[in-house]
Design goal:
Layout lengths: L15 E7 L8 E7 L17 H14 L2 E7 L1 H7 L1 H14 L7 E5 L9 E5 L7 H24 L5 H4 L5 H10 L10 H10 L3
Parallel strand pairs: 1-4, 4-5
Antiparallel strand pairs: 1-2, 2-3
Helix pairs in contact: 1-4, 2-3
């Protein structure tokens, strides 16, 4: 992982949080954000963008991060909030909730992407930050593992859609199941593939 520009910030900044989210693209389920403050005295080997890791690697790192981080927290926005606010604003809300849940107050938060939520501390957006900033990489792993676990449970609650496999993303299998079964309450009504199906069925 590149750490050239983001190894550690300027003097006086002692607590740095990394913030990332997962679940912007799926057609169902919540968007989940995580905020992590790593302990600089206990660096964690193997941190990287969660998408570049295997499920087994993510699970192993999840436990290490939870045990060794100075603080970590999850924030979420539910389907109803996504439909009400739109996915961008719901994502910002989830990130705000993640930072607010930290047991320690960071002086600086690095946010993955090109937009920052309004936070009580200084925030800096870092494009591809989950591959460049260890704190963001850790947050991406916490968020990804948490949401993937929820998708397995959701698959049991709403069988037939294959959610445990595609995690809610608009795969061919998911789209076929949607057309066959129709949208479930867990689906995001504001997302076009779901909205079109509801309009065709005359139920929305």
């Amino acid at each position: 992982m590149k750490q050239d520009l983001f190894d550690w910030p300027e003097a006086g900044v002692e607590l740095v949080a990394g913030v990332d989210e997962v679940g912007r693209g799926p057609l169902c389920g919540p968007v989940i954000a995580a905020a992590v403050i790593l302990d600089p005295a206990r660096p964690i080997a193997g941190l990287n963008d969660s998408k570049k890791l295997t499920a087994r690697q993510r699970e192993a790192l999840f436990d290490i991060i939870c045990n060794q981080a100075l603080a970590w927290s999850l924030g979420r926005a539910e389907v109803a909030e996504i439909d009400q606010l739109n996915i961008l604003h719901a994502t910002m809300l989830a990130m705000q909730r993640a930072v607010a849940g930290l047991s320690l107050q960071p002086q600086l938060a690095y946010i993955d992407g090109n937009r920052c939520p309004t936070l009580p501390c200084r925030a800096e957006a870092v494009v591809k930050g989950d591959s460049r900033v260890p704190e963001i990489a850790a947050a991406s792993i916490i968020a990804k593992v948490t949401r993937d676990r929820e998708m397995v449970v959701m698959d049991q609650q709403w069988p037939g859609y294959g959610i445990a496999g595609h995690k809610g993303y608009p795969t061919a299998a998911h789209m076929a199941a949607l057309k066959k079964l129709g949208p479930a309450p867990i689906h995001r009504r504001s997302f076009k593939p779901v909205r079109v199906l509801l309009e065709l069925a005359g139920t929305d």
